[in-house]
Amino acid sequence: MTATAQRPAGELAEPAPGRRRMRSVLTRGLAWSRKAWWIELITIFAGYGLYEIVQGAAPWRRGAADRNAHDLFRLEQSLRIDMEPAINRFVNAHAWLAYVEGYWYDSLHYLVTPSVLLWLWLRRPTAYGRLRSALVLASVGSLVVFWTWPLAPPRLAIPGTIDTLYVRHIFGSVESHSASSLVNDYAAMPSLHCGWALWCAITIVATTRSRWRHLAWLYPAGTILAVMSTGNHYLLDAVGGALVIMAGLFVTGSRPPRASRQDAQAPSTAAPIGISAR
Asked: Dihedral through CA 78, CA 79, CA 85, CA 90, nearest 10?
């Protein structure tokens, strides 16, 4: 008779392979792992280009978009959160503030999110896969809403709303206003300006340990002000943007990303050639 190895008292049995795989799926969700820098770069640029094409090709349906805008604004009025006209008038009554909000709306959206993604890839490799996947899936989910529920923004639906980008010539918007086939004027819900800004704040807060990290919440707060003051979104659009981001985080895993020693000490060899991870 052969002796059977006894497991020390109190030690948990190792899960069976099938249970380990199930636990991995529940933890990672729909997230996919961090790839080589050039694969990530091609994927992000191709994905964003496809997103712009699909978003621009979504049915405009002006009548449905106007009706939906009327219904949504009436809902805001019933909830006493119909602050868009007042904010829009106040900001546009002060030229310097209108320029600040206009350039905030039309530039930071395309600068901050890629910068946070790059920082995340370089400095937080273990958190990158899930957070990048959440951003991508949230954006894809938004496309579904654009196609199925068109919504006219306040500048096209609420009489007296000032189109700040057009009036202030933000980045030549007078010449290009509604001229591009990639621009869908009736894709206001959800606001990805607000959703992506919230994603940036969540990423910074969840993956850093600095006592100043909570200042990151000022970015989505400022973006909410910018989208309403320029006449491009309703407050409920910002809520919709937050919901798609939270949904993206939910389906990519149940365990929230945290700053780790491995991330904080990420070797420079993880960075692309010519870029230091310091």
From this structure: 140
